[in-house]
Automatic annotation (TrEMBL):
The protein's Enzyme Commission number: 4.1.1.33
Top-tier EC class: lyase
GO CC annotation, single: cytosol
Ranges for domain Mvd1 C-terminal: 173-303
GO molecular-function term, one example from the UniProt record: diphosphomevalonate decarboxylase activity
GO BP terms in the entry: isopentenyl diphosphate biosynthetic process, mevalonate pathway
Protein name in UniProt: diphosphomevalonate decarboxylase
Bilayer-spanning residue ranges: none
Taxon lineage: Bacteria, Bacillati, Bacillota, Bacilli, Lactobacillales
Key words of the record: ATP-binding, Lipid biosynthesis, Lipid metabolism, Lyase, Nucleotide-binding
Record Pfam families: MDD_C (PF18376), MVD-like_N (PF22700)
Family: Belongs to the diphosphomevalonate decarboxylase family.
UniProt keyword Lyase, yes or no: yes
Domain Diphosphomevalonate decarboxylase-like N-terminal as annotated: residue spans: 9-160
Length: 318
């Protein structure tokens, strides 16, 4: 057995969102979801056994609260047999808890690292199931390019798979409005959103949108991808505003970027938005348009930071 194992996984951004659970303990979602893995944003995680009394987490060189990772490791001990305490060292090349999917890249990287440390068979479906237990969106970060997480109905049937392992020319421009830690975690936010009277309708529509999205990706039809993704994401945020304890991840700056992107589309550019559990906006476009659009965005929002992200690869060992 190796002494220390290091793995890397990239974040992914959902084009069809996961936003609600039928089983909170197991992270079984109310909808199937589809994402693109992003090349420039990732987590690198090393694990080793320790004689310490508890699991520990060092994140970006600082000691962190280890309760979430420890709960995850306890789940793994239940699945694969007891093993010693683990020391985790992790680097996020993505803002933590800001709606840029750090939980996806980090639990996918931790899963891969633990599979290496425990010498488990590197079965993609099994790794996806285990990553899902840490954070639902992590189930998709095992894979490169496009992944679909079929919602399933229990632990065994709920896992992601590669949908289309090709670059269809899609680009995302990430508008970093704030890299501050969010007040409302994704876990809590989606639980509240499920109390919206319109939530059932959003879930139903999502199944239709998923089928259309798969078609659009296979046809490399970026306009169709963008239109569906935008509608699905804005619908998700509507649930937050309509639920019993309303909340909103948008800031006024978020809304301004959304409005400006819609104007760019009206003016003839491929430009659409998707937004996760945070204020940051991802602008969907294609490789041919990304630079023109970036120039326009920088001119309109000189105070913001923008990064161009293209599709990234599957998890890997370093
Ligand atoms: P995000 O939008 O970044 O995915 P979430 O609310 O879904 O935000 O998850 C953020 C949480 O994920 C953090 O508070 C922390 O518990 C966990 N996390 C993020 N990065 C790491 C890491 N590298 N190692 C362990 N846990 C992490
Ligand atoms: C808006 O996977 O972070 O990014 O399973 O509770 O850890 P937990 O939630 P998380 O939720 C992600 C929500 C989203 C949409 C998505 O990635 O599909
Ligand atoms: Co998350």
């Amino acid at each position: 057995m190796k002494n220390i194992v290091t793995a890397r996984a990239h974040t992914n951004i959902a084009l069809i969102k996961y936003w609600g659970k039928t089983d909170i303990a197991l992270n079984i979602p109310t909808t199937s979801s589809l994402s693109m893995t992003l090349e420039p944003f990732y987590t690198t995680t090393s694990v080793e056994f320790t004689d310490n009394e508890s699991d520990s987490l060092i994140l970006n060189s600082a000691m962190e609260d280890s309760s979430r990772v420890s709960k995850f490791l306890e789940m793994m001990r239940g699945q694969y047999g007891n093993f010693p305490k683990v020391m985790i060292q992790s680097e996020n090349h993505v803002p933590t808890a800001a709606g840029l999917a750090s939980s996806a890249s980090s639990f996918a990287a931790l899963t891969a690292a633990m599979f290496g440390l425990l010498d488990l068979e590197k079965d993609d479906s099994e790794m996806s199931r285990i990553a899902r237990r840490g954070s639902g969106s992590a189930s998709r970060s095992i894979f490169g390019n496009f992944a679909v997480w079929n919602k399933g109905e229990n632990h065994q049937s709920s896992f992601a798979e590669s949908f289309y392992n090709k670059d269809i020319g899609l680009s995302m421009i990430v508008a970093e409005i704030s890299s501050e830690k969010k007040k409302m975690s994704s876990t809590k936010g989606m639980q509240l959103a499920q109390t919206a009277p319109t939530y059932g309708a959003w879930v139903e529509k999502s199944a239709i949108q998923l089928a259309e999205m798969k078609q659009a990706i296979l046809q490399a039809d970026i306009e169709k991808v963008g239109l569906i993704a935008q509608d699905n994401a804005l619908g998700m945020h509507e649930q937050n505003r309509l639920c019993l304890e309303p909340f909103d991840y948008f800031t006024s700056e978020t809304q301004r970027v959304v409005d400006f992107t819609k104007e760019c589309y009206k003016a003839g550019l491929l430009a659409f938005v998707t937004i996760d559990a945070g204020p940051n906006v991802k602008i969907i476009t294609d490789h041919a348009t990304e630079k023109i659009l970036l120039t326009k965005l920088k001119a309109e929002f000189p105070e913001l930071t923008f990064d161009i992200a293209r599709a990234g690869g599957a998890y890997e060992y370093l």
